Amino acid sequence: MKDFPNLYVAQIDNKVVVFGSNLKDFIISLNSVVKNLKPYMFYYRAFKKIDYMEHVAADGRKFYLQRVL
Description:
It contains two helices and four strands; from the N terminus they run ββααββ. The chain is globular. It has one domain (about 10-65). The protein is of the alpha+beta class. The protein has helices at about 25-35, 40-50; strands at about 10, 15-20, 50-55, 60-65. It has a four-stranded antiparallel β-sheet.
């Protein structure tokens, strides 16, 4: 687990659709699945304070974003 200082996942319908160990790469990958994301710095600041958040896509799908490690 030393190789993964952080692990971020995005879930929809109880399925992981995007994951990553680097927040910037995670947001870039997530942007290919979900449009209307906020800028990277929003998520950087948010994940400093919380481990879990919801994001509602433009088409109404709810994504759950979580920092696991």
